[in-house]
Design a protein that fits this description.
By secondary structure, the protein is an alpha+beta fold. Among the domains are: about 170 residues, Valyl/Leucyl/Isoleucyl-tRNA synthetase, editing domain (Isoleucyl-tRNA Synthetase, domain 2), CATH 3.90.740.10; about 160 residues, Isoleucyl-tRNA Synthetase, Domain 1 (Orthogonal Bundle), CATH 1.10.730.10; about 130 residues, Valyl-tRNA synthetase, C-terminal domain (Helix Hairpins), CATH 1.10.287. Helix content is about 45%, strand content about 15%. The protein has 32 helices and 36 strands. A four-stranded antiparallel sheet has the order 6-5-14-16. Strands 10-11-9-12 form a four-stranded mixed sheet. Strands 34-33-36-35 form a four-stranded mixed sheet, sandwiched between helices. A hairpin with a 6-residue loop joins β26 and β27. α23 runs parallel beside α25 and α30 runs antiparallel to α32. The longest helix is centred in the N-terminal third of the chain and has 31 residues. It binds one RNA strand through α13, β25, α22, α24 and α27. It comes from Botrimarina hoheduenensis. Belongs to the class-I aminoacyl-tRNA synthetase family. ValS type 1 subfamily. Monomer.
RNA sequence: GGGCGCGUAGCUCAGUUGGUUAGAGCGCUUGCUUGACAUGCAAGAGGUCACAGAUUCGAGUUCUGUCGUGCCCA
């Protein structure tokens, strides 16, 4: 709370106390209601709206640094816009994440209580998942608050709450009524352990050792001269029981020509050393024409004629068909087709529907009644053994010659870690043709722009396929599909449960399935605002202003929000999508809880502070690169750090390599491990942010101390000294840079501009220089105080979005010593920096001449310091120096004399053309101003002849090389003729400057002998 | 296989439309108990800008190819 009594500045700690600031200011902001958005002023036209919906974190687990980055960036945007006077709505909430959450809870249930979901039943399991959700939602909310996020917590939503459920139901009803929902067959990724379909992004691929078996199917009634059997090969022999065709290419000769032409093209382009293998391939292809082509042509003709093959073991026949999926250049050239259990084969079926599909699997992964009795009830591995044995015995397979080893890329379920079975199932689909097109149009027309632009391509490519969206999931956790079905009757979709009882009396049953999580997420930008009701919130804040997210859900989420917004509200959900980088660990892997490399933002916040984390994140958020963050454990005993490795990141306990004491990690489960203190995981990258915050804290302490007797008064322009004007000029420039950078989502540029300004200009120069002015009361001190108060005020406001707690803490302290500030008119600071006006760059203050002149002063100061350090002259020894320079430079430097004394303990005893010292001096030339400046530093007894000679010789060598290069350039007629005149003139000036310096160095060397 | 990135100092990264002798933080070396700050101050060492070509008076920056690496899609 803002204190009513004045703080004793002497008691302020010498290091920024982030714990205290965070504990104090977040509750204050919430109590004041700064984060609560009010639609009224927007609807009245008094304020412009700015709204953002949070990408809802899923309630499966706690947030990691990736989320911290996502939310920090949103908060920076929101806080900045709030300061600019917009009515800001940042809508928070969480996602129910269907399968992920159900899987986590089920796994836990099995581990801890040895219960399956069937033991609890649908209602029981859902109850348990709600409990889990409550726990994690609370944790996530807490994390976001610790991070300082300025969300409108009074409006927090959950994708499965009543309001979102209503939007989901309304949407499904509309889709159903419009005929955009249908039920169809589709090959899904079946998890036989969880007995549900999983989406493509819940599948991971892993290579496993397997085999490639060949066997043959007899031809039914071959004509004379025709093959009597067809050879096919497969990695999954057991699926032959579900075969419905064998395919041969419709134009094997043409296909071979095509492949050969491609190989030749590749050969022509290949470097010599890569040619032999390509030549070998071409030769093999030629050989294949002789050995295989005649037979393939025969088979192709037989396929056209409608020849049947006998399917061994299954006592049925299947057709030989012509289809391009068969590759004449590979294997036998023929391929078996199992549409119900292979994605490619299913596509063949779609082109040749007459072959039909046969599903041979039950939901539990065992063979069903479509296969001969002896195989029924076998698991896939069991069936594989039996099929091979039986084929061998029947003479269709020779285990000696017809099998080879092969690595197989096998899909696994991310949820159960068991192999996926492709499985043909009835599914609910949403027709995507029109909807996808509308979402594509939104981006191609520019109504929605994606930043950086390149991500627009993956968005358009994906939507361009217009694949229908399978929306059903065989789960219990989610929005239940509002459809009631009855055999032989038309299904009904009900908007209201009151009608359900009626239809159920008529024998209709409620569909068991729930909707894909992304179905509810797609409605998020407006379901959270009360749609389908036309609420004030929706009227004021929809469409939102920007969506901030990471690239992996552009297709799953962003595209679907766009098409749903257009479909339901006839308006895009946001005009801009900003795609930010991802956080990777030191090995370049994305962070995840399951991998063990996830970092809890609270660990970082505890150690370095929320401001440090946020500033560090902004500093790292560049446009093109992901953020690589080497991660380390911090020993709770000795605070030593231990680098995280792929080995130790999954261990429940680690022994500290510094103090040999053990500590526990997030994997600790056994009591003996849990009893140990936990070692947090952080990254030393955030030291940058912490150090910066501390620097700013101390600069503020210094400023506050020197403002104790500050009295606001208007400062005339002629009262400003050169360093005042310089600082105000730089501040105006930086203000402009920060605003522009944030407008363009260049967070790193904004952070770097502020870091450099605050540290290297405000602290290192302005504060150092004003020390002398504060030492003596008078008008000069008053001017310095006014400039200091104004500059600090502006700097705090610029930094507030990135470092909210620190800036608020200082803002409140500044209000105590300088409640009124401003150079021309005294303005009272706002009660919180959250609602202080965002700085506007004062173009009139920008003075490039002052900035360049000041740079000369800095360069001379640097030269003196360099000589002192180079010769090891103790800092308490006072030095004299002279500056040989033109009159303009002389006039500039003259008034800075006190600052040389103060900042380098050196006296400028002579300035201007041909200045030098009578005492023995070391020289240092300064380049870059297109006028020679040479500094002569009197070095008294400290000269080390040999070291000085070496230093000068090195400088001479550099200058000789440089002048040589410049002469060469200027001697090049083409350069002089083609380069712009100002470039040529610049090079000439540089040469003149360097030659003067070279002469000075040579003279100094000669003097040393 | 297709698409999109990335490869710059020991590490993590900046480097606008081609035009100073390529920068920062960390780490390293040297010196500082200097009245805001050792989470600091001053200075220093450290780079064939992955490689090979091309365009240009001029390339870290543009183009082509190669290698390495990562992500997405199939």
């Amino acid at each position: 709370m803002p204190t009513t009594s004045k703080t004793d500045l002497a008691t302020l700690p010498s290091a920024y106390d982030h714990h205290a600031a965070q504990a104090k200011w977040y509750p204050f902001w919430e109590e004041k209601g700064y984060f609560h958005a009010d639609p009224a002023p927007v609807l009245k036209g008094d304020k412009k709206p700015y709204s953002v919906v949070i990408p809802p974190p899923n309630v499966t687990g706690a947030l990691h640094l990736g989320h911290a980055l996502n939310n920090t960036l949103q908060d920076i945007l929101c806080r900045r816009k709030r300061m600019e006077g917009y009515e800001v709505l940042w809508m928070p909430g969480t996602d129910h994440a269907g399968i992920a959450t159900q899987a986590v809870v089920e796994r836990r249930l099995l581990q801890e209580e040895k219960l399956s979901r069937h033991d609890l039943g649908r209602e029981g399991l859902i109850d348990r998942i709600w409990q889990w959700k409550e726990q994690y939602e609370k944790r996530i909310t807490g994390q976001l608050k610790q991070l300082g996020c300025s969300c409108d917590w009074q409006r927090q939503r959950f994708t499965l709450d009543d309001q979102c459920a209503r939007a989901v139901r309304e949407t499904f009803f509309k889709l159903f009524s419009d005929g955009k929902v249908y039920r169809g067959k589709r090959l899904v990724n079946w998890d036989t352990f969880l007995q549900t379909a999983v989406s493509d992004d819940e599948v991971f691929h892993e290579e496993v050792k397997g085999h490639f078996w060949s066997f043959h199917y007899p031809v039914v009634d071959p004509k004379a001269g025709e093959p009597t059997h067809v050879t096919i090969a497969t990695t999954r022999p057991e699926t032959m029981l579900g075969d419905t065709a064998v395919a041969v290419h419709p134009d094997p000769a043409g296909q071979l020509d095509k492949v050969e032409a491609e190989l030749k093209e590749k050969l022509a382009a290949a470097p010599a050393k890569e040619r032999p293998p390509i030549v070998a391939q071409i030769e093999a292809l030629a050989e294949r024409r002789k050995t295989h082509l005649p037979k393939l042509l025969q088979l192709r003709d037989m396929a056209k004629r409608g020849v049947q093959l006998t399917l061994p073991l299954a006592e049925r026949t299947l057709p030989l068909i012509a289809d391009e999926w068969a590759k004449p250049e590979l294997g036998s050239g023929c391929v078996k087709i199992t549409p119900a259990h292979d994605a490619n084969d299913y596509e063949v079926y779609q082109r040749n529907e007459s072959i039909g599909t046969i599903n041979i699997m039950q939901p539990d992964g065992k063979l069903n009644d479509s296969v001969p009795e002896k195989y029924r009830g076998l698991t896939m591995p069991q069936a594989r053994k039996a099929v091979i044995a039986d084929l061998t015995e029947a003479g269709f397979h020779d285990p000696e010659s017809d099998v080879e080893d092969r690595l197989i890329d096998l899909a696994h379920s991310d949820r159960s870690k068991t192999p996926i079975e492709p499985y043909l199932a009835d599914q609910w689909f949403v027709k995507m043709d029109v909807l996808a097109q509308s979402a594509m149009d939104a981006v191609t027309s520019g109504d929605v722009s994606i930043v950086p632009e390149r991500y627009g391509k993956s968005y358009l490519d994906w939507l361009g396929e217009k694949r229908d969206w399978p929306v059903g999931r065989q789960l219990w956790w989610g929005h239940r599909i509002p459809v009631w079905r009855k055999d032989g009757a038309k299904s009904v979709c009900l908007l209201d449960d009151s009608e359900a009882q009626k239809v159920e009396k008529d024998g209709f049953t409620h569909d068991e399935e729930v909707l894909d999580t992304w179905f509810s997420s797609a409605l998020w930008p407006f379901s959270t605002m009360g749609w389908p009701d036309q609420t004030d919130l929706l009227k004021a804040f929809y469409p939102t202003s920007v969506l901030v997210t990471s690239r992996d859900i552009i297709t799953l989420w962003v595209a679907r929000m766009v098409l749903m917004g257009k479909y339901l509200l006839d308006e895009i959900p946001f005009p801009e999508v900003y795609i930010h980088p991802k956080i990777l660990d030191g090995f370049g892997e994305t962070m995840s809880k399951s991998k063990g490399n996830g970092v809890d933002p609270l660990d970082v916040i505890d150690q370095f502070g929320a401001d440090a984390l946020r500033f560090g994140i902004a500093y790292l958020t560049t446009e093109t690169q992901d953020v690589r963050l080497p991660v380390e454990f911090v020993c709770p005993h000795c605070q030593g750090t231990i680098n995280q490795t792929k080995q130790n990141r999954v261990q429940p306990r680690i022994v500290c390599s510094h103090c040999d004491k053990p500590f526990s990690t997030q994997w600790a489960e056994k009591d003996e491990d849990l009893a140990l203190p936990r070692g947090p995981v952080t990254s030393e990258r955030f030291e940058l942010g912490r150090n910066f915050c501390n620097k700013l804290w101390n600069a503020s302490r210094f400023a506050l101390g020197n403002l104790q007797d500050y009295k606001p008064r208007a400062i005339g322009p002629d009262e400003l000294r050169i360093e005042d004007r310089w600082l105000l000029s730089r501040l105006a420039t930086v203000t402009g840079e920060v605003s522009t950078s944030l407008d363009e989502y260049r967070f790193a540029d904004a952070a770097r501009a502020l870091y450099d300004f605050a540290w290297n200009e405000f602290c290192s120069f302005y504060l150092e220089m004003t020390k002398a002015r504060f030492a003596q009361a008078g008008p000069d001190k008053q001017v310095a105080q006014a400039v200091l108060a104004d500059a600090l005020d502006t700097l705090l406001r610029l930094l507030h979005p990135m470092a909210p707690f620190l800036t608020e803490e200082v803002w409140q302290l500044l209000a105590e010593v300088a409640p009124l500030r401003g150079l021309t008119a005294a303005v009272e600071g706002t009660e919180s920096i959250c609602v202080a006006p965002w700085p506007v760059s004062d173009a009139a203050a920008i003075d490039p001449t002052i900035e360049e002149q000041f740079a000369k002063f800095q360069a001379v100061l640097g030269a003196v310091r360099e000589v002192r350090q180079g010769l090891g002259i103790p800092s308490k020894e006072s030095l004299n120096f002279a500056v040989d320079c033109d009159e303009e430079t002389e006039n500039l430097i003259k008034p800075m004399q006190p600052y040389f004394t103060q900042m380098a303990k050196a006296n400028a005893v002579e300035l201007g053309p041909d200045s030098a010292l009578s005492e023995f001096s070391s020289i240092k030339s300064i380049s870059g101003f297109n006028t020679p400046i040479t500094v002569h530093v009197g070095v008294k007894a400290f000269i080390k002849i040999e070291a000085e000679k070496a230093r000068l010789a090195k400088e001479q060598a550099n200058l000789t090389k440089f002048t040589g290069a410049l002469r060469g350039k200027l001697g090049n007629e083409k350069f002089v003729a083609n380069a712009p005149a100002e470039v040529v003139e610049g090079e000439k000036a540089k040469l003149a400057e360097a030659e003067t310096q070279l002469a000075a160095v040579a003279a100094a060397l000669a003097k040393l002998g």
